[in-house]
Amino acid sequence: MRYINLLFCLVCNVFLFQSADAQTATSARYQQAFESILKQHQLAGSISILDAQKDSLYTNNVKALDQGHLPASTFKIPNSIIALETGVMKDENTILLWDGEPRSNINWEKDLTLQQAFRLSCVPCYQQIAKSVGVARMQEKLTTIGYPKININEDNLTKFWLVGEAKITPRQQIKFLREFFERKMSISDNTYQTMLRIMEIENTSTHTFSGKTGWSTDHGDNGWFVGYLMRGKDMYYFAINVEPKDPDALEQFLTDRERVAREALATMQLL
């Protein structure tokens, strides 16, 4: 019996070792190409893409997969889900009224639908949503949909995703998106279908490309672009997390987040 147990353990260890090697190999496959893309755009950070069919994760930086950063405006994804689930918003056409006060972005100085607010990344719009949801429901719903744990209170309710210590990693971003798309969250069909429309950026005869950018400055400039690419029935989830090497090139940094994702997917001959 002891011999059988020992043999079983040895087999398990070999299997785990081989599995770890395989995972590392798939991660390294596009490492150089992804690094080249970041270098070209004068960015530091990580590109992570999950091939859901193979359950293989490709990245230029394995360590960065589990390094957390403020979610910034990528939090508009769970915030929108919660707004719909709580009835604060009915669908993508629900209007968020402008109070007439000056805003930091002139494009936000008007009434916006939920979909417009999402695409324009209207911070005060989503602060209004967070207020309407409230601390208790926000905390409860985040737990329900499986979002990483965040300390929410009355003082940070309208800003915890932009400043403070809230964190989400690239791996967690991808996991959250996959669980949403594969309908592993306890959300209504209305919420699910509305979110598909809200997040969609591009829909062609060959693919659907969806996602959301994010930018935080509380711990230095840090940018996200997270989302998914659907080609037929095949799904690819991505999380781009980058910082500008040149702090004076912020305008380029902001546009390059999505561009980097597109170029990485093109390198994999997916887009």
TrEMBL record:
Q: Does this entry carry the keyword Magnesium? A: no
Q: Where is the Penicillin-binding protein transpeptidase domain?
A: 60-252
Signal peptide positions on this chain: 1-22
Q: Does the keyword rRNA processing apply?
A: no
UniProt keyword terms in alphabetical order: Antibiotic resistance, Hydrolase, Signal
Instruction: Kindly state which reaction or reactions the protein catalyses.
Output: a beta-lactam + H2O = a substituted beta-amino acid
Q: Which InterPro entries match?
A: Beta-lactam/transpept-like, Beta-lactam_class-D_AS, PCN-bd_Tpept
Q: What is its EC number?
A: 3.5.2.6
Q: Name one Pfam family in it.
A: Transpeptidase
| Similarity comment text for this entry | Belongs to the class-D beta-lactamase family.
Protein known as: Beta-lactamase
Species this chain originates from: Sphingobacterium corticis
